[in-house]
């Protein structure tokens, strides 16, 4: 294991050097062995007690230089000039043996930093388990995302609604540079720092932008493209991030900061779970336009480097087209279409409208639709099912082939809220069996797994989860 610390080498006001507070009685809840191997951490071994010391913050990983990162951000539309890692520490960077890329290793819930404001710098184990399950499930569904390396119970209680056991999540990310990082320096009119950040971001995420006439514009264009695809993928799988503030949008294009996020059960464009999102700013169907809004804030920062506004506007305007193209391609594939023809956008919209009007389960409906291809008994999905059949039967393939293709892009297992809540409740009382079972099932989201069918089921009325909480 060979740590680099390139972010720590950036000027001093980019971060603060802080040591993790440590855990009085750390206990390993989860360890992502394949990910550890890929990052060259195999030499840490697999002794749970030692891993708990390391990832509970009691012992520093050799070569790491922990820092809290400074950033600002628009939270629910309001600008906050000073945020920063209030409960997280970047330990350093490792280069993956698998893909040759550089990854940040970060402890989340590791204690106070100069950016904690009134927070305790801690996390309860609920959010740790939620982020572990959701980020790893997203990865298995092919969505760009931060990953979970380790989860540790600290042995200490944190005060939330009541007293709850504390936890630390170790997160792996392509970087922790956010839109809010640019805002931090832009609002301070610290052009020198802004320039250094842009150079850093380009070197790390968009080296090809250096060949362009204007590297900052090319960098911006790359971020626009990545975000358009990311949000399209979120809609594809029914994911609602919940807090798409600019400080929670990574310029790498990875899903980051799993707070009150959730997968929806029955389809609803206006679906909101987060208890703090009272006006539905970050509702399921709002996510594309919010991503574009956040990108406009990034453009405003980059303009301060003395580049014409028009160049950024031209790139920002491409967002919608990029999003729609990707989204339509994804939805067409979900419906088993081999190509996108005229009329297919209407088919997609009417299918989704049917799900919405009948409050049908988003995830299962696609799997059930696939099974309708060789079943000509009374349609389950009404008229839209007949139109879909007419469309896919024009394609030259067997019903089995169609089903195989559809099932390869329509997950059967998603981290459903009621199951995540069950896993959290059990873990709080010391039982990790549901968490472990869910972790296992979600490793193969597209594959039927005998004995685990219950995890694919939507909640019963008494199991429904109406709200999710940041809980940090
Ligand atoms: P987020 O929930 O990621 O959007 O957090 C927004 C800001 O609040 C970030 O600057 C976090 O570091 C900070 N924050 C959240 N929870 C805590 C906590 N328990 N202690 C200190 N800072 C926190
Ligand atoms: Mg955040």
Count of DSSP-assigned helices: 14
**Percentage beta strand:** 5-15%
Shape: globular
Backbone structural class: alpha+beta
User: How are the strands ordered across the major sheet?
Assistant: 2-8-9-7-6
Give the radius of gyration.
23 Å
Q: Which spans have pLDDT < 50 for at least 5 consecutive residues?
A: none
**Ligands, deduplicated:** adenosine monophosphate, magnesium ion
Q: What is the helix fraction of residues, given as a range?
A: 25-40%
The overall pLDDT, averaged over residues, is: 97
Order of helices and strands: EEHHEEEEEHEEHHHEEHHHHHHHH
Overall number of strands = 11
In quaternary terms, these chains amount to single chain
Describe the structure.
By secondary structure, the protein is α+β, with helices and mostly antiparallel strands. Among the domains are: 7-173, no CATH class; 179-328, no CATH class. It has helices at residues 33-38, 48-55, 125-140, 179-187, 191-205, 215-237, 287-303, 309-334, 344-357, 362-371, 382-392, 399-409, 417-428, 433-441, and strands spanning 15-17, 27-31, 67-69, 73-75, 78-80, 88-95, 102-108, 147-159, 163-173, 239-240, 262-263. It has a 5-stranded antiparallel sheet with strand order 2-8-9-7-6, sandwiched between helices. A two-stranded antiparallel sheet has the order 1-3. It has a two-stranded antiparallel sheet with strand order 4-5. Strand 6 (88-95) and strand 7 (102-108) form a beta hairpin. The protein binds adenosine monophosphate and magnesium ion. Adenosine monophosphate (AMP) is lined by residues 83-87, 115-116, 119-122, 243, 245, 247-248, 257, 259, 470, 472.
């Amino acid at each position: 294991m060979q740590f680099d610390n390139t972010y720590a080498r950036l000027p001093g006001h980019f971060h603060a050097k802080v040591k993790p507070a440590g855990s009085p009685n750390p206990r390993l809840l989860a360890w992502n062995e394949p990910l550890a191997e890929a990052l060259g951490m195999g030499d840490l071994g697999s002794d749970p007690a030692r891993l708990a010391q390391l990832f509970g913050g009691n012992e520093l990983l050799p070569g790491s230089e922990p820092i809290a990162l400074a950033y600002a951000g628009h939270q629910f539309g309001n600008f906050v000039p000073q945020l920063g890692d209030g409960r997280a520490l970047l330990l350093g960077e490792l280069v993956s043996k698998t893909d040759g890329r550089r990854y940040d290793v970060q402890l989340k819930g590791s204690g106070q930093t100069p950016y904690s404001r009134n927070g305790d710098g801690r996390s309860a184990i609920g959010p740790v388990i939620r982020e572990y399950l959701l980020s790893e499930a997203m990865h298995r569904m092919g969505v760009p995302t931060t990953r979970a390396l380790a989860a540790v119970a600290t042995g200490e209680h944190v005060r939330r609604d009541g007293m709850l056991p504390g936890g630390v999540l170790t997160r792996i990310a392509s970087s922790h540079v956010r839109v809010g990082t640019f805002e931090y320096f832009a609002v301070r009119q610290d052009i020198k720092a802004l320039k250094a950040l842009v150079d850093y971001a380009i070197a790390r995420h968009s080296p090809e932008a250096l060949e362009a006439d204007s590297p900052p514009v090319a960098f911006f264009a790359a971020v626009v493209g990545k975000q358009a695809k990311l949000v399209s993928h979120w809609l594809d799988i029914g994911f609602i991030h919940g807090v798409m503030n600019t400080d929670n949008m990574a310029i790498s294009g990875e899903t980051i900061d799993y707070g009150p996020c959730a997968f929806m059960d029955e389809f609803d464009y206006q679906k909101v779970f987060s208890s703090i999102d009272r006006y539905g700013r970050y509702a399921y169907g709002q996510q594309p336009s919010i991503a574009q809004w956040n990108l406009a804030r990034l453009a405003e920062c980059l303009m301060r480097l003395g580049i014409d506004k028009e160049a950024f506007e031209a790139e920002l305007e491409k967002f919608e087209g990029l999003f729609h193209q990707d989204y339509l391609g994804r939805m067409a594939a979900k419906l088993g279409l081999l190509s996108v023809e005229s009329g297919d956008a209407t088919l997609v919209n009417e299918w989704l409208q049917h799900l919405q009007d009948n409050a049908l389960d988003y995830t299962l409906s696609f799997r059930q639709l696939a099974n309708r291809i060789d079943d000509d008994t009374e349609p389950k999905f009404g008229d839209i099912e007949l139109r879909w059949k007419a469309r896919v039967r024009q394609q030259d393939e067997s019903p089995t082939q169609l089903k195989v293709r559809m099932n390869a892009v329509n997950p059967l297992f998603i981290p459903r809220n009621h199951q995540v809540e069950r896993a959290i409740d059990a873990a709080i009382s010391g039982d990790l069996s549901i968490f472990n079972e869910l972790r296992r099932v979600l490793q193969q989201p597209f594959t039927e797994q005998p004995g685990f069918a219950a995890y694919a089921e939507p909640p019963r009325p008494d199991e429904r989860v109406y709200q999710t909480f940041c809980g940090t």
